[in-house]
Amino acid sequence: MVVMKERTAQEGLSVELEDAVRAVSVVRFDRGSAAESQDAVACEEPLEIQLAGVPLAVVMRTPGDDDELALGFLITERVIESLDELLSLRHCSVAPDPEAEGNVMRALLRPGVRVDLEALRRNLYASSSCGICGKATIENALRRAKPLDDSARFSRSFFARLMERMRLAQSAFERTGGIHAAALVSPEGALLVVREDVGRHNAVDKVVGWAARQGRIPLAGHALLVSGRISYEIVQKALAARIPLVAAVSAPTSLAVRLAEQAGLGLVGFLRGPGFNVYGRRERVWEDGV
User: Fold this and answer.
1) Catalytic residue numbers, as ranges
2) Which residues pair with 107 in a beta bridge?
3) Mind listing the pLDDT tens digit for each residue in 196-245?
4) 92, 117, 242, 289: least buried by Cβ within 10 Å?
């Protein structure tokens, strides 16, 4: 059985502040004066994700919801397709360095579930390398996750106040001003879950991990919200989770738009009020009353 912590707070809230925030010394300059003080900053630490004791990846993340992060990473990187393929997922109880305690998640697959570790490492390397062209990058993504077969469409009014609602759930951002967020929106427009992290892609993995725990994968008809821009990696992760639309407060990148066009995703950028831009499969968004 997969071992994961149970969340006692409301699911829609982001990571607990004691995990996400650290106090640091600071000198504040203001109106010609300088004074020593304390400031709250977003916590950033490495997390090693292991598969059967073999290191698979190290991500720089905000501690908290590590189980969701690791599970989401395994799904969006196509290591597994669902929670059912996992025998267990837990923090390692023994660390070589006391400071590394709590910074290793170990996954074990169920008997009969096989993974080509060398091929997986090559895929992970190719996804993060700079020496391959955009065309090859997109082809690699579409080999690992087929284009969407999802008829979902979203009205203009669906997006009203989505970013504002996500922002109100960002407790760590409220304290630090330096942390990203991702949220999952139901087909009916309900904000299902919000997760925060120093990395946008980590926040997305936490959201996908939460959805996997709830038995919601694949996420047909849902929308993904992210703070900042929409990068290729965000679209690739949405594709793996079968999410047909990604919306963000900022712009998409060129490679994100190209992948969205070929994979069947709609992208909404500059979602900061009543107006926004639609990229990729633009037919996924329609004007109310039309």
Assistant:
1) 130
2) 51, 89
3) 999 999 999 999 999 999 999 999 999 999 999 999 999 999 999 999 99
4) 289
Local structure of 166: helix, strand or coil: helix
Q: Do β-strands 245-248 and 266-269 pair in parallel, antiparallel, or remain unpaired?
A: parallel
Residue among 57, 90, 52, 54 at smallest CA distance from 73: 57
Burial of 90 (0-12, 13-18, 19+ CB in 10 A): middle
The answer to whether 260 touches 245, Cβ cutoff 8 Å, is no
pLDDT of residue 7: 45
What's the CATH superfamily of 9-21+35-290? Cytidine Deaminase, domain 2 (3.40.140.10)
Long-range CB pairs of 41-47, under 8 A, 24+ apart, other chains included: 41/176, 41/178, 42/172, 42/176, 42/178, 42/179, 42/198, 43/19, 43/198, 44/198, 45/103, 46/103, 47/103, 47/104, 47/105
Q: DSSP H helical segments within the chain, as ranges? A: 17-20, 66-76, 117-128, 134-144, 162-168, 171-176, 200-213, 232-241, 254-263
How far the first Cα of the chain sits from its last, in Å, is: 49
- 269: DSSP letter: E
Give the count of beta carbons closer than 10 Å to the beta carbon of residue 255: 18
| Axis-axis angle for helices 200-213, 232-241 (nearest 10) | 10
The whole-angstrom separation of Cα 78 and Cα 58 is 16
Buried b or exposed e, range 233-250, using 16+ CB within 10 angstroms: bbbbbbbbbbbbbbbbbe
* Amino acid, single-letter form, for residue 120: L
Please give the pLDDT value at position 273. Answer: 83
Amino acid at 90: R
Phi, psi of 180 (to 5 degrees): -90, 170
Cα separation, 11 vs 136, whole angstroms: 38
